[in-house]
Fold:
Amino acid sequence: MLELNFSNMMGEVIGEKGVSERQIEGIKAVVHEIDKRIKAKERPELAFIDLLEQDTAEIKKIASDVREKSENFLILGIGGSALGPRAILEALSPFHNLDKKPKVFVYDNVDPRTLHRILSLADLKKTAVNVITKSGSTAETIASFMILWDKMNSAVSDPTKNFIAITDPEKGSLRKIANEKGFRTLSIPQGVVGRYSVLSPVGLLLAEVIGIDSGEMLKGAGDIHSKCSDAEIWKNPAYLFGTLLYLMEREEKRNINVLIPYADGLKPTAEWFCQLWAESLGKSGLGLTPYPSLGTTDQHSQLQLWMEGPEDKVVVFIKVDDYGVDFEIPRVFKDVEGTSYLGGHTLSGLIKAEQESTELALSKIKRPNMTISIPKIDAYHMGQLFHFFEVATAFTGFLYGVNPFNQPGVEEGKNFTYGMMGKKGYEAKRKEAEKASNAKRVS
Ligand code: PA5
Structure:
């Protein structure tokens, strides 16, 4: 079971820069109120919690067909519609395309070079294209879908068979096209917004396509939910995580949250968390800046800044107890003092020692940090990680008094893009953009 060790956030360990039990006791009444609001599903977007009970039969059926007939599985999506699938892929099937079928490509940008490379690697006749967009109208996803639709029309006689749409059950342009053309479709339930959708068909179809049991992910999420729905803050890891980071920002001005998993496969999970945390909390002049990192790699790149730079961060480690495989470091070069001490240890022993040493070093100089531990990286514990972070984020949004489910700040940029690309109704935005483009330049 996922566990949160928060000792190094507390005054007993890091002195006056730490949080006190009294502070947490003092916030308990607010936490109880928020807990009630979450349980009452005060906002429809809390429907992400209901995903734990979903029926996955249709997802499994489509995935089995893809596995049987396709050599490539190409995801088109962006933000919450791509970061979750990528996190699952890298955590549970690293280097997938080197020896597994179908190969998986996640095209989550509109960089022409990337698409060109994907199309040179994937024969469209043997490719299932999974278009994912909750709104059904995101310019990047729709543009790449239009290109793929056109190319698929030239490649096969019945292109509809090659497309699987994951979108809103009723609304949006993708739903309209999918219904008209007769694509296979899966729905993201109405209330669930992009960055809380990894445990919907958005992430689960990819999981099944690469041979991961989506039921295990949901089981893991369900088991952690029983802890993350405890009204008692001291027993609820998600509420405690949010409260500690909130107090560190409010009381100590630590508004940067580093997330550093000690596992290569969890790097995209840190990126997924960044969208969730940043887009959910960053509004009304408030918010916490997430900072994705990787251990041990970033000890040799970022740690200096965390140790002796500005006191504006909290470091959150993700620790893996069992890597599933290991290597013993051989007792070679025995006569070289600088290498012989490593002989006989294991790589997992070394990576764990590095994580613990970093934790100790930070704590020794009173820099707050905490550790999320998972027993191993498998479907069950990935489900736990995802759900833990989602509940923690929604809770923290309520603690700040912001809506953790919208992203109004993203709309203005989108409107300028619509104007520049000539979308009807956005003529004024086009004019505004043209006027502003006389920026000062140097070359
Ligand atoms: O969290 C969100 O809702 C957004 O960040 C979306 O994930 C992102 O904008 C993509 O939206 P859509 O899935 O509608 O294409």
